[in-house]
Give the backbone structure.
Amino acid sequence: MYNDNYETCSNTYVTLRIYYDKMNSEKLTEYLEIEPTRFQNKGESKTEINGWFLSSKENTNSKDCRRHLDYLADLLIPIKSKLKNIVNDGGKIDFSCYWKSKNGNGGPTISKEQFS
């Protein structure tokens, strides 16, 4: 059961991060068929690696981190094989979970289903 008003949280969001030097952000966007929230290309502003980022920040108002993970999962499950190809080809993919406490206590919750 989700708690969209998570009382101990003042703000949360999740960002998928892909670091992959074999494709710049434009080619990766074309390959994945999803527009990133932001990106970085190797060689621009002293950046040493291509980065492609997709965030739930502007798309989910819930204070429950699980809702943010589900939002991204709904976008990513259909392209799961493409993500596996990137990892198998040396790319790095992870999730960054931002969670800010309202009063210094508590923390995010992730369901066991989200680990599978």
